[in-house]
Write a structure and sequence with these properties.
- Helices cover about 75% and strands about 0% of the residues.
- It contains 2 helices and no strands.
- The longest helix is centred in the C-terminal third of the chain and has 38 residues.
- It starts with 9 loop residues before the first helix and ends with a helix.
Length: about 70
């Protein structure tokens, strides 16, 4: 497991504390993990498409470098 240290805008930190206090999450760690998991799940296809496109463009450039 990797540990990350982040800085949050004050308003976002207050929002997180509100969700925790309301019982949606048990901790700041749980709140942030849920947010990251949700972001990755919603954007996974777009990220994979972007990486594939970048790989294809790289391959095209490499082909043109061949003698």
């Amino acid at each position: 497991m990797t540990t990350m240290t982040i800085e949050l805008p004050d308003q976002l930190a207050e929002d997180a504390k509100g969700f925790i206090k309301a019982g949606f999450f048990r901790s700041e760690k749980e709140f942030l993990l849920a947010a990251l998991v949700d972001f990755v799940r919603r954007n996974r296809t777009e990220l994979m498409d972007r990486f594939a496109h970048e790989d294809i463009e790289w391959a095209k450039r490499e082909v043109h470098k061949l003698p």
